[in-house]
Amino acid sequence: MWTISSPTSTVHLADSTDLGGLVSLGWGDEWGEKLAASPFDGTPARVARHDGVKVMVSDGESVLHATFPRSMQLAVGDWVQVKNETISGLLERTSQLERDSAESGPQIIAANVDLVLVVFGADRPLKRNKVLRFVAFAWDIGARPVVVVSKIDLHEDSSQLVSGIESWVGDVDVIETSIEDGVGMDKLFALLSGRTGTLIGESGAGKSSIVNALMEDEVAWIGDVRERDAKGRHTTTHRELHLLPGGGMIIDNPGIRSLGLSSEGEGVEQLFSDIEELAIACRFRDCAHRTEPGCAVLAAIETGDLASDRWNAYCRFIDEQTESSARAQSKQRLKNARKEAAAAQRARDRDM
Questions:
Q1: What is the CA radius of gyration of the chain?
Q2: Burial of 34 from C-beta contacts in 10 A (0-12 / 13-18 / 19+)
Q3: Which domain holds residue 36?
Q4: For the whole model, what pTM was predicted?
Q5: Are residues 343 and 216 in the same domain?
Q6: Cβ atoms within 10 A of the Cβ of 50, count?
Q7: Which site from 77, 196, 249, 269 is most exposed, i.e. has the minimal number of CB atoms within 10 Å?
C-alpha cells in the first residue's frame, strides 16, 4: 500500500538504484536514459500533486512533499530528481499541457501525458470545427487524442453520431460512453492501462462524471483518502495524478478555458494528413494551396476527392497557426527589448 508523508514529516524515497516501484507510475527505458544523461544528482520520482510552494512526489513505494526552486516550473506528471526533500532536477518532458493566462502567460498544468481524452456530450449538437480543434490540440502537445462521446443514452442514434465524428477525425479512436449504463468504460480502462491520460472538452460534457467512474476503485494516497460519504462526488480543486485499477493513471485538473494551436505543433498536420499528402504533388514546394497554379490540393477539391468544408477548416487552422507565430515573435521581441533596456539602465547606474 502506498504511503504519504504529512507536510511536516519525512519519508525517504527508495534508493535510486531500485526503480521497480516507478514502473507503476509509467517509468520505462526512455526515462532511464534521460536519468542517466541528467547532470543532476537525486532519486527519481514523479510529481503526483502540485500544492503551490511544494509538490507531492512518489517513487511508487513512498510519497513526500518536496520544495523546488522558484525558477523551476513544475507540473503534475513531471519526472524529477529529489535530493534532501528538494527537487534537484527535471527530466525532459515528452508532452506538456498548457493553459494560457492573460496575466502570467502560458502555464504548464500537466506533463508527460500519453492520452488526451477529448470529451463531447451526445446531449447537445456537435460542432465539427470544435471537435477538430480539440483533436489538433491533443496532437500539438505531443499526446494521442481519443474522442469520447459521453451521454450516449441521451441520443436516439449514437451510431450515426459516431460515424459522423469518425469521418471528421480520420484514424483517431472514437469511443461511446454512458455513465448511466456503464457503456464504454471498459474501453477507457484498457486504453489507460500503463498510460497517463487527462481529459479536455466543453463544460458540461461529462468529464467529471467520467473521472469519477474511472476513480471508483482508485488506489488512493494514504492520508489523502476522500471521506467515505464524498466518494464518487469528486470535484477538482487542484491538479493531481491518480492511480486507477489496472495500473493506468489519470491527471485530473481544472478546466481549460481556451485552446490555442501552437505555431510549432504538428496537430494540424496530423489531423489533416490527407491534405498534407496531396500537397506533396503540388508544382511549387512553397505552395499555399490558395490560388497557385499546379496545386494538387485545389485540383482534388475540383474533382471532389477533397471536401471543400474540410479544406476550409484546414485553412482556418493554418491561418491561426500563422497568427500564433506572429504573436509569439512579437512577445519575444518585446521581452528582448525589456532585457536590453534593463541592461542599459544597470550600465548607466554603474557609471554614475
A1: 23
A2: middle
A3: 20-90
A4: 0.72
A5: no
A6: 23
A7: 269
Let me know whether 161 and 68 are in one domain: no
Condensed to tens digits (0 to 9), the pLDDT of residues 69-110 reads 988 999 999 999 999 999 999 999 999 887 765 555 667 889
As a whole-number percent, the residues of the chain with pLDDT over 70 amount to: 78
CA distance 21 to 84: 20
Is the same domain home to 236 and 126?
yes
Query: In this structure, what CATH number is given to the domain that contains residue 78?
Result: 2.30.30.140
Q: What is the pLDDT of residues 117-158, one digit of tens each?
A: 999 888 888 888 888 888 888 888 889 999 999 999 888 888
Q: Does 202 share its domain with 158?
A: yes
Look at residue 15 and tell me if it is in a domain.
no
Q: Sign of the CA dihedral 197, 14, 86, 72?
A: negative
State whether 176 and 239 are in the same domain: yes
User: What is the count of structural domains for the chain?
Assistant: 3
Adjacent-strand bridge partners of 46: 58, 79
State how far the alpha carbon of 299 is from the alpha carbons of 83, 154, 289, 309, 315, in Å: 61, 42, 10, 15, 16
Beta strands 96-101 and 79-83 are unpaired
CA-closest candidate to residue 116, choices 2, 11, 265, 16: 265
CA distance 117 to 251: 11
